[in-house]
Amino acid sequence: MSENMEQSPEMLLSPPIPSLPDDVTIDIVARVPRSHYPTLSLVSKSFRKLIASSKLYKRRSQLGITQRRLYAVLRNRKTGEFSFYVLHRKLNGYNRLVVVRSLPFMSSRGSCVSVGSKVYVFNDLSVLSFDCTSHTVQRGPNFPQRISYKEANVIGKKVYVIGDAFCHYVQGTGWMKVWQKAVTVFDTETESLEPKLVKEDMAVGVGPFWSDSVVLEDKIYLKGYMNGNSFVYGPEERKWELMDEVLNSKDWEGACVVDGVLYYHDRSGKVLMAYDPKQGCWSVVNGLEEFLAVETARSRWSITVNYGAEKLALFFPKKQYGEKMICCAEIGLERRQGGEIWGKVQWCHVVIGDGSFDMVKCVSVTV
């Protein structure tokens, strides 16, 4: 082994290419497209260890050749389990969602977000993280108390988990337990929760009133099932505000933010909608009308996810030849002169052919 490299468990086997120093081998493999890695890992145990090595992905990051990968949480209607799947990009064939058996189940009341190459799972009380370069799992700290109906969003390196928690309310000579909105912060750099659970003074009762949430301009936007329950939370000021009427006018469930613009699939209108906070208005993404009218005509749900600069992925159900399936389309986005946004479908594949699954959440990671 090269004297310049520290020995680690992932490199204890003989070098993948014996005639080359380990650091040179890593430099070569780092330049190989990520889509080749599943095949390359089948060559030998040494290559399999190299593909899972943190040094390999660190070198890819240094070279500026990182890629986006999509992880989805699917609910099996037969078993009730919530499992993680990864979208496998195949060179000559259809892309597929494949279960990652080494990753933990997510609670039905849990939530998950991605930061860099890691996915953080916030269950009833526990915090879990898994590294998407090696699919290794770490257990984090527990919440100081149970939080229900959680929404998790990322600003910088911190995750803000917002939900409902019990608190003691003193009135007159007695006290009683009541529900109150609570915010707790998880620092991904220190892998720790802030010591105090912050009870926020917010006039909203207990319950799953939020259908979705996103981050725009460093504020958390929480969309309610009822318009009166849509709010904006500013972490810096720790202040709640009612959502802007224009943004609140659409039911943007299953939304994502790409390059500062919110996108969601309007199933009734069969269009992809965009909201630019700088312009303060909604617009239709041009160029997708025919595709959405045909492919998503009977979709009961849809989820969009940021897939990197100027593109998103759209997941939706479809029934074909009597079989239920889940499809995914990669859509490139382009802002043209005059401010119009145009979309172009790069590919659209059936990613799950078994109709017994529901999609709960999808996150994009950088590896």
From TrEMBL:
The F-box domain, residue ranges: 14-60
Q: Which organism is it from?
A: Brassica oleracea var. oleracea
- Give the protein's recorded name: F-box domain-containing protein
InterPro entries xref list: F-box-like_dom_sf, F-box/kelch-repeat_ARATH, F-box_dom, Kelch-typ_b-propeller, Kelch_FKB95
Q: Which residues form a coiled coil?
A: none
Pfam families documented for this protein: F-box, Kelch_FKB95
SMART domains, per the entry: FBOX
Q: Which Gene3D superfamilies match?
A: Kelch-type beta propeller
